[in-house]
Design brief:
single chain; 64% helix; 2 domains; 2 strands; mainly alpha
């Protein structure tokens, strides 16, 4: 995260941009649409700063460190996972997993797996103790 803190005036200015999902004093979240545009323009050979300026961002307000780190992060994500890598998945992965009612078969299978894990753990501990005894003698 950048060390630059946004003022209230800068937050209001950035919030009006259609490519901004949210802004706080410490960070900014861009829309997935902007990330797609960015990658497309970058592949055409446009400069990072120019892409941000063409999309209505004031790079002096954002700070060049934030602009370049976003560029680096998005290029890496795009290279690894393609367009899907640019999606903001925080909403999907946040918080506790959703609890749902399990069938008796699912509960049984889960408990059996847990029992097998504990049995394997006990066997490992027995082997360790046996090895320690062997080393003492």
């Amino acid at each position: 995260m950048s060390k630059k803190i946004f003022t209230e005036k800068e937050i209001k200015q950035l919030s009006t941009n259609k490519y901004v999902k949210s802004v706080s004093t410490k960070g900014i979240t861009y829309t997935d649409e902007f990330k797609h545009i960015f990658i497309t323009e970058k592949e055409k050979g446009n400069l990072t700063r120019n892409i941000f300026e063409q999309c209505g961002f004031d790079v002096e307000v954002l700070g060049m460190d934030r602009v370049y780190s976003a560029s680096k992060r998005w290029k890496k994500a795009y290279k690894m996972n393609g367009i899907i890598g640019l999606r903001d998945t925080r909403a999907e992965n946040s918080g506790r997993p959703i609890e749902r009612d399990r069938t008796m078969e699912e509960k049984n299978a889960c408990l059996e797996a847990q029992i097998n894990l504990l049995k394997a753990e006990n066997e490992l501990l027995k082997k360790i103790r046996l090895a320690e005894r062997g080393m003492r003698n």
